[in-house]
Design brief:
By secondary structure, the chain is an alpha/beta fold. The protein contains 18 helices and 13 strands. Helix 9 crosses helix 12. The radius of gyration is 21 Å and the shape is elongated.
C-alpha cells in the first residue's frame, strides 16, 4: 500500500510521524512518499521535499515563494495522475494540500485529511472544496465532527494528537526553580512564536510588556523559550541586559508546565499551554498587509483555541493594534496579584483539556484509514 503523505510544517510532521507508525502497525507493507521532516524520515518516509523548505506564514510570504510551491505542486500532481499512490494523507497546510486533494480526487485516489485546518474559522468558502475533493476528514477538535457532518462531509473525531506528544509527568516546581531568574519568586513565560517574522513582530512588544510587569511586581521573572531551529543571536540582541529574562533553547513544554502565567502568541501553542493547565494571555502581531487581507475572511469571535473550545474568553486576547504593552501588562499584573483568579484559570484550562478526548488519536486515525481502504467501516 503506497501512501502520498504531505506535512508542510514542523508541527504537522510531528503528528505525521506517529500516524505513519500506527498505520504500519495495522498495514505492515505500507510505503510512504511525500513532504515531511526528519521524524517522518525516521519512520520510513521517502522524502520528496523537506517541510523546512515548505514552511511559510501569511499571504506575503507565500507569494514570495510562489514559484517554488508551484514546482513542488506540479510534481505531486504528476505523481498522483500516474497513480503512483493508493491513498493520500494530508496534514494541515491547507493552501497547498487542497490542491493535492483535488489531484487525488481527479485521479480517483482516496484522500484523507488528518489534523484538519481551521476551515470553520476563516475562509469558509474552502469547505466547498473539502466536500468535493476529500473523502474522509479525521478531525481533532471536539466540535469539528458535527460542523462538517452538518455540511455533508464525512468526518470523524479521533481526539487531539498533541495529547500523545506531551509529557504529563513533569515536575512543575523543579522546572520553576530552574527557570526563575535570581531573586524572583513568580515566573511568567513569553512565547513570541517560532518563525522569524513572528519574533520580529511580537518579541519587542513582549519585552516591553515584561519591563512594565517587572516595575509593578519586582518579584516576577521571565523565561523565553527559543525554537531549536532559530539562531540565538537575534533573541539575545533583543533581550540585551534584561537580567529578569532568562532565555532557554527549545523546552517550550517545560516553560508551559513551570509558569505561573504565560503570555503567548496565538496558534497551536495556546492549546498546548491549555493542556498543561497554564493560565495565559494571548497576543499577536503581523504585517498590516497580512492582517487586512485576512481580517474579512475570519468567521469566529475568538482566535485562541482554548477560547473557541470553551465558547468564551477564558484567556484575554490582544491582537494587532490592541497588543499594547501597557494594556497587556495590566492584565498580567491583575492575574499575578490574585492567586484565586490564577486557580480559576487553571481549572478552566483543565476543562478544555478534558474536551480533547483521550490519548491515541493517531492509532484511531490509522484504524479508520485502514478500514476504509479495505472497504470496512470502523
Amino acid at each position: 500500500m503506497r501512501f502520498l503523505i504531505v506535512a508542510g510544517e514542523e508541527s504537522g510532521e510531528i503528528y505525521g510521524a506517529r500516524l505513519m507508525r500506527e498505520i504500519k502497525a495495522v498495514m505492515p507493507d505500507a510505503e510512504f512518499h511525500g513532504v515531511g521532516g526528519d521524524r517522518m524520515v525516521a519512520e520510513g518516509l521517502r522524502i520528496i521535499q523537506h517541510c523546512k523548505d515548505m514552511a511559510s506564514i501569511g499571504v506575503v510570504q507565500m507569494l514570495e515563494k510562489i514559484g517554488y510551491f508551484l514546482g513542488v505542486l506540479n510534481d505531486m500532481r504528476a505523481r498522483v495522475k500516474r497513480r503512483d499512490y493508493d491513498a493520500i494523507i494530508l496534514i494541515d497546510y491547507p493552501d497547498f494540500n487542497l490542491r493535492v486533494a483535488r489531484a487525488g480526487h481527479d485521479a480517483g485516489v482516496p484522500v484523507f485529511y488528518y489534523v484538519c485546518p481551521q476551515f470553520w474559522a476563516w475562509r469558509r468558502y474552502r469547505i466547498r472544496a473539502v466536500k468535493k475533493w476529500v473523502d474522509t476528514m479525521l478531525v481533532i477538535l471536539p466540535f469539528e465532527e458535527a460542523f462538517y457532518k452538518e455540511r455533508g462531509i464525512d468526518a470523524r473525531f479521533v481526539g487531539h494528537p498533541m495529547l500523545d506528544e506531551i509529557d504529563f509527568t513533569k515536575d512543575r516546581a523543579a522546572l520553576k526553580r530552574e527557570f526563575l531568574p535570581s531573586g524572583c519568586a513568580t515566573l511568567a513565560g513569553m512565547m513570541p512564536g517560532s518563525r522569524n517574522s513572528e519574533v520580529s513582530y511580537n518579541l519587542p512588544a513582549l519585552l516591553e510588556t515584561a519591563d512594565i510587569i517587572k516595575r509593578e511586581r519586582p518579584d516576577t521573572g521571565f523565561v523565553l523559550p527559543v525554537a531549536n531551529h532559530m539562531p540565538d543571536e537575534k533573541i539575545r540582541e533583543a533581550v540585551r541586559q534584561r537580567l529578569h529574562v532568562k532565555i532557554v533553547k527549545g523546552r517550550s513544554h517545560d516553560v508551559m508546565a513551570a509558569c505561573d502565567l504565560l503570555i503567548t502568541k496565538s496558534g497551536t501553542s495556546t492549546l498546548e499551554a491549555a493542556i498543561f493547565g497554564a493560565p495565559m494571555i494571548i497576543v499577536y502581531r503581523s504585517s498590516w498587509l497580512n492582517y487586512w487581507l485576512a481580517k474579512p475572511l475570519v468567521h469566529v469571535e475568538y482566535a485562541g483555541l482554548p477560547n473557541l473550545i470553551a465558547g468564551r474568553e477564558i484567556a484575554k486576547e490582544f491582537f494587532q493594534m490592541r497588543f499594547v504593552p501597557a494594556v497587556v501588562a495590566a492584565e498580567a499584573v491583575s492575574l499575578l496579584s490574585s492567586p484565586e483568579r490564577l486557580r480559576e484559570k487553571r481549572a478552566e484550562m483543565d476543562a478544555v483539556r478534558r474536551q480533547l478526548g483521550e490519548t491515541g488519536a493517531a492509532k484511531r486515525a490509522a484504524a479508520i484509514i485502514a478500514s476504509r481502504l479495505n472497504n470496512k467501516e470502523p
